[in-house]
Each structure stands twice: as structure tokens, then as C-alpha cells.
Amino acid sequence: MKHEKVTGGLNRSTWGPRLLSWSWLASLLCLTLLPGRAGAVSTVMTAWSGSDGVFNTISLDGKTVYQGQNLGGGNYTGLMYFKRPAGVNFTPGATLYMEVDFKDIGGTGNFGTQYNAVGNDFQFAGFTVGNSVLGSGAYKTAVFRLDNANLHYGENGGTDLRLTQPGPLQLHIVQVRVSDQPTPLYQQLTAFLGPYTGPTYAGGTPVDATTLKGKLLCGYQGWFRTPGDDDNTGWQHYIPDWGGVMSPSKIAVDYWPDMTEYTPAERHVATGFTNPDGTPATLFSANNARTVLRHFQWMEAHGIDGVAVQRFLPGASPDLPTLRVLSHVRTAANLTGRTFFVEYDMTGTPESELVSTITRDWHYLVDSLKLTSDSRYLHHNGVPVVGIFGFFRDRFSPATAHAILDIFKGPGPYQAFVEGAGAWYWNIEPYPEEWKQVIYRMGAWQPWNTGNSGSNPGDVPNSSYWAADQAALAARGVMYVPQLYPGSSDFNRSGKIWDPNADNRQSGAFLWSQVARAASIGASSVFLGMFDEIDEGTQIFKVSSTPPTQARFRDNQGLPSDAYLCFTGQATKMIRGEIPYRATPPNCAAMTQPTIPDAVAPLNGATPAGAQVTYQWTPALALAQGGTLARYELWLDGVITSVGSSTQVTRSTSSGRHVWRVRAVNSLGNAGGWSVAQTFTVP
Length: 683
What we know:
Helices cover 18% and strands 27% of the residues. The chain contains eleven helices and 35 strands. The strands form eight sheets. Strands 17, 20, 21, 22, 23, 24, 25, 26, 27 and 28 form a ten-stranded mixed β-sheet that branches. Strands 1, 3, 4, 8, 12, 14 and 16 form a seven-stranded antiparallel β-sheet that branches. α3 (289-302) runs parallel beside α4 and α10 (509-520) packs parallel to α11. This is Fibronectin type-III domain-containing protein.
């Protein structure tokens, strides 16, 4: 239920670790200390031990290391000071780039930095990458961007900046470097903040990204986090106290993801939970590019068009944790031929900040990420689509609502087709005329329907008003986009008394009643909320039928784990008129697909030695209730051939450029999704 989302959106703590080999760090160090171009200034900062930042100087692995002092009681020096050497000067107000080499020992947690800025001698760096201490024992480098810096010997001992860390964390710092030019490491770690330059879809015809019509799009939260992921902000959305300790007593999701297909690198142990076979239960993080790609492969496999990426209004741009997930979505859409657009969620943002925050962020996405220039970004009527959720009359004034819409009006790079979302009752209650005029200015209106039903078995979602809504909007030239949901459940998150009979999905009938209504009124576009929202029980992605027993979880009511992906794919086809109308759900239990193999060789850019090319891939699995694995099918330059049950096959392949991918077929006769297409060249 989207109106219940946590105030303030995603946690805004800094982005997480990047392991780098020490040899690579050494080469980068050499590059960093040389001028990047005429007038560049780079220096190694001088450590200063004194006042409230006393540290020990020790030797580790033949390196001089500045170690936080033990203060007793499990606490260590909370600050560590550094200053620029005499004769090294940076222009006041410049943007500086700082790299901190450290050994990953001394506890777990994130460290930060404060520095002298113009008008503020205690400015926190808002842009940080790799500042997590995890206890791996490796040498790492954290990168900080210091905006509006003014290093003027302003603090203790003439220092210009200081590292900050929580008391239980003992820092082991090797070196701090500062440059007034972006370092090679900074450029590498922030490359995703520019336009997408990776491979595009090579597996056939991608989803048409030029129109909203004929689309079923899912909301994609992308907000689940785990300790040790790229953020390392700890558990988020899985438990109520983000960053806290996972335990059965404070779980915040009502469903457990089916983790069968995730690789070991994608699985994070959920402390206190075990699978039915006694093995440790695991969970995923959306801050993993492979995980997001996997979700998009499921969409491609089931014929789902794409997603509206939920974007909670950031306090500043760039907001690395959310932009990282947005970048993963962009990459996955390009690799799978899906489409996507950004939907702002205004929940929790003060009215006074709405217009400035959305304007700043939208301009950043357009100008810096070049997001709307991406071939997979959804357009309509020749301009990018942007979703905006939260148009409720009790949240802000009509004047503010108009000002929000004004951000996207008028010709130019920031113009967009606005799909607004908000009060479902706008055309039923005596709704203020000034608010109706707001809705009539939108390109499309999506009344938010989640929760608009009873909570007892047999209840159905309220869709009786949809036809009247559609007619009223059509008279004003506004597209009507009904919002569907598969059910909802938030007992664990809200702390309510568990009721296994409430919020019953009715094995897909709850969702399909809405699909049938949307098809019957000829809706040209449909929004399904959500793809992945297990903390509110609105997800359609794969969830486990055998979740851990250490807490109460719902299962899939006897359906295979991919059943709701199947329902959604079939709904997409029915909305578009590709299959006949039906009032009852299809038999998705009979449509269960095997898992998707990964290509092993040849990969993108490969040049095999000769015409005899060996195609290799990882094994696929038959999901529960999906029979057994029967065979694989090879797609080579658009021609599909059956290649048996082995995970490799050798084929004589002509000279030139070729594209291949592979999929599995189960004993039910159902083909699974294709692996990501790989392009190679035979000499």
C-alpha cells in the first residue's frame, strides 16, 4: 500500500565498499599524484595527532598505518585529523577529490569526513564511495568528493579536514590524498553517473519504448538492502530498524523471496533464519547489478514490458545509493529489451521542498545521467514519461501541485509526459474543483487503488468506478491508467496480530478480477504495483512456498513461485488484445518455466579460434511443480535449434559477426527465459 511507505524514502547514508588489489591501488596512486592537466594540484595530506584526534602510528605489512587510539570500553578515537603540506594551495571554493587508503580491520561500520568549506568549517562530504569497514583484512580505498572546499588551516593544529567514525570502529589509515581534478579511481567508480555506454539488446525485437499505449508496467521499489552489499547500510526494508540486526522477532516482510536462482554472491545470510533443510536462509539486495538483471530477465521471460522505478526525493544529487539501483535498472533494461521510466514518490517530503527537490533531481537525471536520452527510457508523444505519486488534497495545496506540473511543461530538455498518481476517489467524492484542474493538466492519471477493498476472503478490489473515471478523463484529453495490485499484506511490518485469512490473494483471482475489468473497458495502459514489494505484500516476483519457520510468512497458496509473473505476462497480452478476453485466471501452474541459464562462452567481444565454435552455459533448473529439465534450445542469429540436455554444444559457424543465447525447456513443454545475448566474431 503505497501510501504507507516510510517517510523520507531510502536511507541516505553513504555508498559502500569496493575491494581493490593493492597493486592496482599503487598504480592508481602514481597516476593520482601526477598532475591530470595544466594547473592541477594533488598532494598527500599530513596526518596530525593531537587534541581530540590522537592516534597511534604503527607498521602493518611493511606499511606505516595511522591507527585510532583505544579509549577503553570498546571505543576508539572518533576523529583523525589531516592537513595540506606547506606550499600546497587549492583555490577556495573548488571541488576536491580525496582518496583514503585503509586496511579493512578494526570492526564494522562506515567512516566519513568533515572539511573546511566556504562558509562552513565543519562541512560533511555528501558524496562518498567505498567507506565501509567490513573486517575483510584487505586494503581498500575510499573516495570522497569535497564540494566548495576551502582548505585554509582553520582547525586543530592548522588541519583542514578530519576523518570521523563511530566509537566502536578503530580506523587503520594508510594514506590520504587530495586533488583538484577527478582521480582515475573516482572516474571509474562514478562512471554510472554518466550516460549508458554498455551493450544494448541483441536478442530480437525489444519492447517499443516510444509509447505508453499498450503497456503493462510494474512499479519497481529496488529498496531492499543487506549488510555487505554495495551500500553496506545494513538491512533495509527487511526489518523495521534499518541498519539494525536481523532476527525473527523483528522481521518486516510477509513473504520470503525464492532464492533458488540467485548466485552465491547475491545471497546474504539472514541471521536467525534457516531453510526447511536446515541451511542458512538468505536474502537479496537490490544494490547488486546481477540481481536487478535477474529480475528483468524474469520480466522478459514472461512478456512483461518493464517498470516505473520508484524514486524517493533525495536530499541532494547525486544520491549514490538510489542512483546505483537506477543505473542497474537502466543496464538491465538495455540487456533484456525492456523499458523503464522514473516515478517520483513525494511521500514524506515537506510541501516547501517539493518543487525545488524534484526540479533539481530531474535536471540532474536529464543533464548528467542523460537518462531520458537512453533508448530504453519510455517516451510518449515524443517526450519522456515521468511518474509522480502523491497527489492527495490533504498533502499540499493545488498551487503547489500546479507548480510541480510546471517543472515538466514547455519545450526543452526537461519537458515530459506526466503520469500522475494519487486519490482513487477523485471522481466519486465531492472533490475540490481546483484539484480536478490539476488532474486535467496531466498527460495520464493513475488513481492509486491498492488497499481499496475489504480484508476478508472473497472480497474483491474495487474497480467499479474505473469506466466512469476513464470517460471523465477522456473528455479532457487525459489518458486513464488503472492501477492493479495482486493483494497486500503487512502484518509483520505493521506489528498487527497475524491473520492468515486476511488479505487473501485467492490464488490469483484477486489480481485477475482487476485485469479483466481493465481489459473490458479497453484500458490502453495499466500500472501494476508492485514487482518486488514484499514488505507490503504487493509483489509479483518469485517468492518461496517453503519459507523459514522462525517467523510467520505467507506462501504462494500452492502456486509455483513464478505464478504471478505468469499472471502478469498473460495480463499484458490480454490488455493488448494478443489473447482472447477471459474473466477467470489462466492456469499458470501449468505454465511454470525452468530457470534461466547464463552464457559462459563465447561472451561479448570474443573471437573464437576457428569455425568450430563451442557454446557453453550454466545449468538451468526445473522449478518446483515445473516437471524436470528436458532440453536446451540454442538461438543463433535468430534461428532456434534444440541441442539436447548437455550444457555445451559445438557448431560450425561461418565467418563474421554472430549473436547467440540459450534457454531451457522443462518436461511440461514450457520454455524458460533466454540468457543475455552475446555477440562474437568468427575470423
